[in-house]
């Protein structure tokens, strides 16, 4: 699991660390890390440019320039605010033979030391003008300048980094925005940090959490999933949701609804019935995709909320909650619910747009509904009411296709039925879903049914990393 810490927590931890470290030692350690990565990226080429801002981020760039000079690299620095350039860094850089110029010459690599943790807003015009002329790959110090460190939001010009070298710990920007290849340099910060503000599951975490049958298991003992989705108008949603559930875990899937014939034809291993009241016992329900929002759909939603098992509520279920708040209020408050809106469903449910800070939006909704909230998108955010947040960045946008959400909700239902902790169930499903999309697409558009069919490949791929 990777952790990410907010600027507030990083700055407080850095202050504590600075208080017990000789002056300048942290910056030299950090910038030595920058220089090491720069040499690796240069691969024998010898011309580096530095864009140097007014704060310590610029100081890091200047000290990195100093170390590069000592390795014989030609380094030219552009000082964006010459009077406020880091004095010790600038003196060391000049001593080592670094050149200061008003424009970057032709170089093989640019080090972005414009702004780091204290950034606010997009690049200012002077910095933006220099960045616009850059053609060489950019190595960002701490984070790409112009991108918000806590939200990953860009509201104007920003640096597009080939690689980012960060120090002490990762920050939210590294999970929420494209920072290129992110390298972490240890400066001894970990002991000073509280628990992470965000987390991102890696393959090994997902493999560890994913339910695998034991020798003593049977089809019931692993948790039976119930799917309440689809309708006469939208039978496909039921087929996709049920299929995702069948493929995600071992054990049994029960389908209840108007698409029973279509589901039975495609998934003979599922136990299908036309009516929710005849479904039989399950350990979790996945409800909503293609269900409709009429009276009979409302009754289905009431039934699953009353079943005393965890519920994943998606699509039409979310719209019904938005249209009729009584439905939500009537549920047993102890029932675990995972809500999985996309942005428009979020706006319906919350009565406000998601906005640019998607993590804050997901946290607000999780708290308001006392539920796990999975906000869909290229970067999926999962927040639980206790304040924990997991993010999953999809490496491709191929999953942005009709029916893909139906697949996700079937997978979440399966993991909930197997007893996986709700935040982890949603985050693991998002991870495998994105990977299945990538594997199935392999560079060309795919329908959601192909994404669904790649679930076993994606599970195999994450499990391949475990010993
Ligand atoms: N503390 C530590 O232990 C360690 C810290 N380390 C390093 O320190 C960095 C944090 O340094 P920091 O706090 O000095 O501020 P920093 O990010 O350089 O920026 C401040 C200046 O930028 C300006 N500015 C703001 N927004 C801007 C924009 N959009 N576009 C352009 N300019 C903008 C703003 O200008 P002003 O508003 O004052 O005019 C201000 O003067 C951190 O990221 C890491 O690299 C490492 O050495 C490891 C040890
Ligand atoms: N740009 C994107 N890149 C990667 N994944 C995406 C992107 N847009 C959406 N997704 C994912 O695709 C799925 C879409 O779900 P949803 O909008 O509910 O679709 P549908 O209702 O058609 O099933 C979600 O899992 C979401 O995270
Ligand atoms: K930077």
UniProtKB/TrEMBL annotation:
Cofactor binding description: Binds 1 potassium ion per subunit.
Needed cofactors: K(+); Mg(2+)
Amino acids binding (6S)-NADPHX: 56-60, 116-122, 142, 237, 290, 342, 406
Domain annotation YjeF N-terminal: ranges: 10-195
Alphabetized PROSITE patterns for the sequence: YJEF_C_2 (PS01050), YJEF_C_3 (PS51383), YJEF_N (PS51385)
InterPro entries reported in the protein's UniProt record: Carbohydrate_kinase_pred_CS, CARKD, Nnr, Ribokinase-like, YjeF_N_dom, YjeF_N_dom_sf
Pfam families hit by this protein: Carb_kinase, YjeF_N
UniProt binding sites for K(+): 57, 112, 145
Keyword terms: ATP-binding, Isomerase, Lyase, Metal-binding, Multifunctional enzyme, NAD, NADP, Nucleotide-binding, Potassium
Domain YjeF C-terminal, first and last residues per copy: 202-462
EC annotation from Swiss-Prot or TrEMBL: 4.2.1.136, 5.1.99.6
GO terms assigned for molecular function: ADP-dependent NAD(P)H-hydrate dehydratase activity; ATP binding; metal ion binding; NAD(P)HX epimerase activity
UniProt record, GO biological process: metabolite repair; nicotinamide nucleotide metabolic process
Physiological role: Catalyzes the epimerization of the S- and R-forms of NAD(P)HX, a damaged form of NAD(P)H that is a result of enzymatic or heat-dependent hydration. This is a prerequisite for the S-specific NAD(P)H-hydrate dehydratase to allow the repair of both epimers of NAD(P)HX. Bifunctional enzyme that catalyzes the epimerization of the S- and R-forms of NAD(P)HX and the dehydration of the S-form of NAD(P)HX at the expense of ADP, which is converted to AMP. This allows the repair of both epimers of NAD(P)HX, a damaged form of NAD(P)H that is a result of enzymatic or heat-dependent hydration.
Similarity annotation: Belongs to the NnrD/CARKD family.
Name recorded for this polypeptide: Bifunctional NAD(P)H-hydrate repair enzyme
Species per Swiss-Prot/TrEMBL record: Umezawaea endophytica
